[in-house]
Specification:
By secondary structure, the protein is mainly α. It contains 11 helices and 5 strands. Among the domains are: 10-95, Arc Repressor Mutant, subunit A, CATH 1.10.10; 178-276, Tetratricopeptide repeat domain (Serine Threonine Protein Phosphatase 5, Tetratricopeptide repeat). A hairpin with a 2-residue loop joins strand 4 and strand 5.
């Protein structure tokens, strides 16, 4: 099961992903709630919003039946296995994939472990785990699936989790002294997200620690202009603190604790949209 990019469901190596948009929505909604019952009313809200047809529940049953048929074709002994994957429950349906590779589950596991390692002072292990977590992404979440009132917020939540994992991985690289690697990512990210204070703060620190002090200060002024022009806001205290440290530092390496001036750091200062 894959949702971190295009929606994909394969059984025994056979792609059984539906192609009809509403059937894709049904599968996607169950996948994002894997192991939990999705109520019929939730499906109706997602598929038809405030204008469901009179036949909405019957149509939903038809979509579920079609998904079961797609899955069953990949099994020789179809009936018992299919019943264990896509179950009918009181008031709704449940998708169960306890043993199957599922990119969202794998991303969450590696991302959580990586962030814990970083918080415990092990940036090397944190970077490895976070890189592994990010490797499961093949594009924006559910990029080929239409989204309604329920899937839409869930997809935006997934993109936010991707952003946090990416920022934490960059933070780990900075703590290990991999400034050039971080700068390469941050050039693109800051262009995509001109109002995101976290990544601009990281970009300023990476440039300064790489010996590019004047460029780091230039990034501050660019961010400040963007924030003032678009939102009428000054940069956050953390970003201003980073600027002051850079201004007061004659050299990026004059202090053995230079790499840690930003502690504690948390990926929570977003004004602009997150990148995919």
């Amino acid at each position: 099961m894959s949702v971190l990019g295009p929606l994909r469901l394969s059984v025994n190596g056979v792609d059984v992903t539906p192609t009809a948009p509403k059937q894709m929505q049904v599968l996607a909604l169950m996948a994002l709630n894997e192991g939990q019952v999705v109520t019929a009313s939730s499906f109706v809200d997602e598929l038809w919003a405030e204008c469901p047809p009179r036949s909405a529940k019957t149509t939903l049953q038809t979509y579920i039946l079609h998904l079961r048929k797609l899955i069953s074709k990949a099994f020789k002994d179809e009936s018992p296995v299919v019943r264990d994957i896509l179950l009918t429950r009181q008031g709704g349906y449940l998708l169960r994939l306890p043993m199957a590779p599922f990119d969202l589950r794998q991303f969450n596991e590696f991302s959580t472990e990586g962030r814990i390692a970083l918080s415990q002072g092990d940036p090397f292990r944190g970077s490895q785990l976070l890189r592994k977590a990010l490797s499961f992404w093949q594009g924006p979440a559910l990029v080929d699936v239409p989204t309604g009132s329920i899937l839409g917020p869930k997809v935006r939540g997934l993109q936010a989790e991707h952003q946090i994992a990416l920022e934490c991985r960059i933070e780990a690289d900075l703590q290990m002294g991999r400034y050039d690697d971080a700068i390469g990512d941050l050039v693109t990210l800051t262009a995509q997200q001109p109002l995101n204070e976290n990544i601009h703060d990281q970009y300023m620190r990476a440039l300064h620690l790489a010996g590019r002090r004047s460029e780091a200060l230039g990034i501050f002024h660019r961010l400040r202009k963007n924030l003032m022009d678009d939102l009428g806001l000054e940069p956050s205290e953390q970003v201003q603190r980073t600027q002051q440290v850079i201004l007061s530092s004659a050299s990026s390496r004059e202090d053995g604790a230079a790499r840690n001036w930003w502690t504690p750091w948390a990926p929570d200062r977003h004004h602009g949209p997150s990148a995919a």
